[in-house]
Design a protein that fits this description.
Layout (H helix, E strand, L loop, with lengths): L1 H41 L2 E8 L6 H16 L3 E8 L12 E7 L5 H12 L7 E8 L5 H4 L4 E3 L11 E4 L11 E6 L11 E3 L4 E2 L2 H6 L4 E4 L8
Helix pairs in contact: 1-3, 2-3
């Protein structure tokens, strides 16, 4: 009798332990799911970029990205798309590719948007093609993306890219704490001789050559050697 009671008690403890262990798994799994949904509830948009790193972008991977995004529009996971590149007047990616941002639709559930992100993350382009998927709270409008970056000023801000230079405007480079605008350095210039004097005291054949050298213009015409 005592043996039977002992067996029943041990069995109850064992069964209870399993129940508690199972309950713990349920709680942990539920917490993980809740946190996952919460993250996607806070981040209702995703930035996606794909392009080449010295060669042509992998067309199969790019087509998969387009297909996943198209499917997301069809099932209501997203309802807004900002295409930053390629587009008229926009930046051009190295060897093709594209850069865009997709926002979740108002009726899209966190689970549906999460599934969309998982589909994007399942794409793995081969070496030679870069691919980035980054969650964000909201997409930046195109007019904000293309807003010129300021440089110089009291803080002496630098342009973000070495392919850009700070253009202060003709005759403004010697003004203390002058603020300019970051502009792309041209890679091809004509050879007509229309000399300009750069803010660095160097004479350039024309304004394009000055910009290519990363120099803002002090004045039109050759520099005066007697001036510092």
């Amino acid at each position: 009798m005592n043996t039977l009671i002992t067996w029943l008690i041990n069995s109850y403890v064992l069964i209870s332990g399993r129940k508690m262990k199972g309950l713990a798994y349920v709680l942990i799994g539920g917490a993980f799911l809740f946190n996952t949904i919460s993250v996607h509830a806070e981040h209702r948009a995703v930035n996606v970029s794909i392009g080449g790193t010295g060669g042509a972008v992998d067309s199969a991977s790019e087509q998969r990205v387009r297909k996943v995004i198209g499917h997301a529009f069809k099932d209501g996971a997203v309802d807004t798309l900002y295409v930053y590149s390629p587009r008229a007047g926009g930046p051009i990616f190295i060897e093709g590719g594209m850069s865009l941002c997709a926002e979740a639709g108002f009726s899209a559930t966190p689970e549906k948007f999460s599934d969309f992100i998982q589909r994007l993350n399942a794409i793995h382009p081969p070496t030679g093609t870069f691919y980035n998927v980054e969650l964000t709270k909201a997409c930046e409008p195109i007019d904000v993306i293309n807003q010129p970056q300021s440089c110089g000023g009291i803080q002496g801000k630098q342009c973000a890219s070495t392919q850009q230079y700070c253009d202060f405007g003709i005759g403004h480079c010697k003004i203390a704490d002058a603020e300019g605008t970051c502009k792309e350095k041209p890679t091809i210039c004509t050879r007509q001789y229309e000399p300009v004097c750069g803010c660095n005291g160097i004479t350039y054949g024309n304004a394009c050559e000055a910009a290519a050298a990363g120099a803002s213009i002090d004045h039109v015409g050759e520099c005066n050697p007697s001036q510092p």
